[in-house]
Amino acid sequence: MDENTTKQNGFSPFEIKPQTYPKQSRLSGARANEYNLVSDFQFGYRNREDITNLPKGVLVKGSQNVLTNVSDRVASRKGFTLDGQSSTDTGGFRASYDWLRHTGDERHLRCGKLTTSNNGVLEVRFVATSGDSFNGTVFTEGQVYWFPIKSSMTIVDLNFSEFWDFTTEKKGFLLWVDGTSNIYEWSGGVTTLSSATAATITKTGTGTWAEEGFYTAGTRSVVINGTTYTYTGGESTTTLTGVTPDPSAEIAKSIIFQTIRVTANSAMTNIPATFANSLIGNLRNQIYIGSLVDNTVYISKLNNYKDYSFATPRVVAEGALVTLDSPPIGFVPQEESMYITAGKDFWYQTKFTLSADLTKESFEIIKLKTGSQQAAKSQGMISKIKNQVVYISNEPTLDELGRVEQILGTPQSVNFSDPIKLDFDSYDFTDATVFYYRYFIYIAIPQEGLVRMYNLTKTYWEAPQLLPVGRFAIIDGDLYGHGYAISETYKLFEGYTDNGKSMEAIAMFSFINYGTRTALKSFNKFYLEGYITSNTELTLGIQYNVQGCDIMTQYTLDGSNTKFVCLGTDDASLGKVSLGKASLGGELTFQDSEDLPPKFRWIPTFPQVDFFEYQPSVSSVGINQRWEILALGGAGGVTVNIPVSITE
């Protein structure tokens, strides 16, 4: 096909030629087996092989913000909505933790640095009842607000662990470290003020202060609107006594939270006073403390995170000391062992063995058989899936560490990321995190502005998702993300806008050559079937031959075009009915529980072009746009069985 022939067909080589509403055929004009369709989207996304060697229907590089759903359709993803207060601060969050307390409620924490004030803060999520307030801000019913429990922090890269106090308080605490020579402890107590006198504070509700998780022993205090009040009694009731200073001026329904306790290494036993506590973990209620700049790991006595002493020979439940080949990077409690990753290469497994008389307990550290660059890159890049550990290694790869079928002894490492090796090799994993949620492995790669998702059920990767998060959280059973560039938290995969902004969804498929690489093919019409909301503009792209060596054409389907879209009378997508009258996203009352938007079948026709292979794509850009693809493919096939010359 020469240049003149191409121009006669209305195209010019090496350019995108947009085509809006070309001549379009109805299905009545289609013959059986006329189209070479792709209707099997069970391969997910890949970026390793040549894109002309992949099976039909594989998503490839260029795809974004689309997912394969449980019905094996390729669909534009849902968006995300703001959780709590908005922010213009560009500090973002570097640490977070979701804590299911012994009281049965949850505490969700996030930590970051507010660049506008150069002030690091640790915040807790609060869901208000009407009239609750914090520092003069009054909340409405159900309003979410993240309030600070610690401010003026210079370090915001925290690591957390839970601990149970069996001796004094008999309740669970949250511990964390920040690279200084301290361990921080918080009871998680949060409530609101009912009333106050000169020396008392009465909480709302019928539960006692102790039942709400507040401290009952030692020096204890609470904070109301920035003022710290100590108390000496009343925890078994709803009224604290012996309160100082005078709290009577505090406003009713103000948020009250327990003050954080700080224990310096110098106040603990058998841990150096200047040891930089960067990592913390818990196995069997014994706390592990590690430093990113020291090869030593300290293990506490059972039920006492302030004592790391032990005898020789070691007695049951005493502390222990571990010296590794390199400084530790992360701790992962798993089954009866603590997995420890260190340096660039190492993984270890702890082992405790009781003596015959059950009075002594030996402790050893076993180095696992892993290769060079197989250590995890950070604590944040490690997660657990039941009895397995997944992590990003220094290669970098996403690996699974755990028991492999038919290998009952030492845990083995398995690589998950090979199908997207070219993507992984290109990423900057600084501050990345790995997270497991509902049979998906999520990887936030904030330097790239991406989230990658591995589908454990279907064992393939989804296309890249453009999401501005660096940490994940599970709140009320749903997936949330903490912003990396902006200090906000979002509920993920809700609605069809990205926090009110436009989203670009692109499904770029592998090349199709009709079973032969050497012959020329052609077609002049294309079949596309799926589901679409009436406010969506869906763009079909067809690239002839790889890397634009010929041309790329584009055609647009308007989701409100009743010639191709079965809108029905119950279409309630945005723009068709008033806001507040129906849900967004095109819910149809006559469709099943999948809540699908209207069905469409579309056959655009266009000038015929000869090609060796072609690449279809489907995309949209906008707010509240939604579509799902069920089948697509061109008509026709081989036009010249003898290959044309491609040499001079």
Secondary structure blueprint with pairings:
Layout: H1 3-8, E1 16-20, E2 24-25, E3 66-68, E4 74-76, E5 80-83, E6 93-100, E7 106-114, E8 119-127, E9 133-134, E10 137-138, E11 144-153, E12 159-165, E13 171-177, E14 182-186, E15 190-196, E16 201-203, E17 220-224, E18 227-231, E19 239-240, E20 255-258, E21 261-264, E22 279-283, E23 286-291, E24 294-299, E25 320-323, E26 328-334, E27 337-342, E28 346-354, E29 361-367, E30 382-385, E31 388-392, E32 398-404, E33 407-415, H2 421-426, E34 433-437, E35 440-445, E36 450-455, E37 460-461, E38 465-466, E39 469-475, E40 478-483, E41 489-492, E42 503-508, E43 520-522, E44 526-532, E45 537-544, E46 552-558, E47 599-604, E48 614-622, E49 627-634, E50 637-640
Parallel strand pairs: 1-46
Antiparallel strand pairs: 2-47, 3-4, 4-49, 5-41, 6-7, 7-8, 8-11, 9-10, 12-13, 13-14, 14-21, 15-16, 15-20, 16-19, 17-18, 17-20, 22-23, 23-24, 24-25, 26-27, 27-28, 28-29, 30-31, 31-32, 32-33, 34-35, 35-36, 36-37, 36-38, 39-40, 40-41, 42-48, 43-50, 44-47, 44-49, 45-46, 45-48
What does this structure look like?
The protein is mainly beta and 648 residues long. Helix content is 2%, strand content 43%. The strands form twelve sheets. The chain has a six-stranded antiparallel sheet with strand order 2-47-44-49-4-3, with no helix packed on it. Strands 18-17-20-15-16-19 form a six-stranded antiparallel sheet, with no helix packed on it. Strand 13 and strand 14 (182-186) form a beta hairpin. The longest helix is centred in the N-terminal third of the chain and has 6 residues, at 3-8. It is globular and about 90 Å long.
